[in-house]
Amino acid sequence: RACAPAGPDAASLAATVRADADAAGLADAGELALLVEAIAGACSEIGAALEAAPLRGIGGLAGGANASGDAQKALDVVANELFSARLAESGLVRVLASEEEEEARVVTPGAPYVVVFDPLDGSRNVDVNIPVGTIFGVYRSRQDLADECVEAQALRAGREQVLAGYALYSVQTTLCLAPPGTERADFYTLDRASGRFLRSQTGVHVPARGAIYSLNDARYNDWPDELRAYIDAVRNGESESGKQYSQRYVCSLVADFHRTLQQGGWCGNPRYHLRVVYELAPLALVAERAGGAATDGTREGQVLDMQPSQLHERAPLFIGSREDIAELETYGDVRQHGTKSYAF
After folding, report:
1. Of the listed 37, 121, 296, 327, which one is catalytic?
2. Which end of the chain is more exposed for a tag (fewer CB within 10 A), N or C?
3. Which of 343, 332, 170 is closest to 259 using CA atoms?
4. 99 part of the active site
5. How many Å apart are CA 121 and CA 187, to the nearest integer?
6. Active-site residue, 232 included
């Protein structure tokens, strides 16, 4: 009998998600599989749009600002439209909330899910061909809330998410998914020939400790004493592990987080810069499912327990290896307060 070929699973993304949800006894396994398939289709389309953008003259600023006041890139708008359209077409999404839009909106009244997303994370890098990504989180719709209560559907603790993940557009287009009904994270790689995401790694596990920290070292003088003390220690090999850490920083959260999942250490931003709903909560679920941890920079600030009060609320983030995050927390409050802004 012929042996099965090594490499990615032959089963489709939808099939593996349904199998996981069925195994967990989830009554909505079929709908979850279809929803993930719609998300994957949107990410595939965004990846294709990014690849073709220079040939189609799509680039630069769009001429406006998003709901958080950031200058919008033309590809921010394209990615937001592609993701929104795919999810709306699925008929499974009651509420969509995008980082690029001021308000959440009802798409299909009575539908079972709420999807929050950052359509193009790291877009300031997109015109120079540095890896960027899409981040998403999925909640079950609260059927006790009327459609008029649309914002409340998205203002939920991250621990309520049924699934979350991200797409990374780089050498390959990779989809990382924390599947419903599981305690793990999986990688899927887009096979352009077939148009399918094939599972390339299951049970991704972030090392308990790494030797990399990832944040913008140029801001060292603006950090609190507690964060500088920690960074000095790991730079000099004086951490609990005794290792001398290296710094790696792409300035694209998805790219830095993807490396962290595989190599350990941590990445993040000590400023009140990243969005709790669209970035922190989904990535924190992936990190925890992969054996890692995520904090806002305080001992009490576990990201998945944060209860946002505004759709575009911002907070610091430190995310990665569980032992590294635990050691960082022993230094106290490592958040950078103040309103100082930077050119880049």
Report:
1. 121
2. N
3. 170
4. yes
5. 18
6. no
